Amino acid sequence: MPAADTLRWVHEDDPRWDADRERVFATVPEGVFRTEARQSGERLSSDWWRVERGGTVVGYGWLDDVWGDAEVLLAVEAAARGSGVGVFALHRLEEEAAARGLNYVLNVVRDTHPERAEVTAWFEHHGFVAGEDGRLRKRVGDRARDIGQHQDGRPGTGEATPPSDGRQARYLAERERAAGRPRRDDEPATVGADRGPGEEEMGGYVDPEQHRY
Fold it and tell me: Looking at the whole model, is its pTM more than 0.90?
């Protein structure tokens, strides 16, 4: 039986808004994510993973690779912050991006984030570089940017493990689904429809208005 403090990274094949998300995101300070009402059972697009500790969900990771690189966000329950859950989720998201053969993971800390400077510094400590456009970017597998994190087994310390056939099929299906719903930059999101990259979880650290390609 796994230890109670062991973290598990669980992919959600059919991500939907549920009680665990409601609980975790309710502890996130105002201004971190876009304020948006969710309905129980509402389907969420792109890829979602939950972080579990002792059978309890303590955080989430999100990734969208429709545009060639990987936009990522993470959320950690207040009681679990500072215990390694955020670092765990970030590393797993980097590994997922590397497995897809992507070049960069990207993140934007919103201007309204109450701890914007601290969170930006946290990402920079873990190898992200801030650009003039406000985006934080890290080249997957580039050890020179992974400050103080050169341990064996970390993302970038070896060749990326190719995804399984099932996972690769899921990635391709997601790309095809996204390609079938093109949307202009000036086209507003439709209520109840699948949202574009960055809009899936109340904006997250990824601001779609600052982060379109």
Answer: no
pLDDT along the chain (213 residues), means of 10: 74 95 89 74 94 96 87 94 95 94 90 87 94 86 45 41 56 54 42 37 39 35
Q: What is the largest CA-CA distance in the chain?
A: 52
Q: Is residue 31 included in any domain, yes or no?
A: yes
- CATH code for the domain in which residue 52 is found: 3.40.630.30
**Which strands, in side-by-side order, build the sheet including 47-53?**
7-12, 47-53, 56-64, 70-76, 104-107, 136-139, 129-130
Q: Exposed, middle or buried by CB within 10 Å (0-12, 13-18, 19+), for 18? A: middle
In a domain, 26, yes or no: yes
User: Domain span at residue 132?
Assistant: 7-139
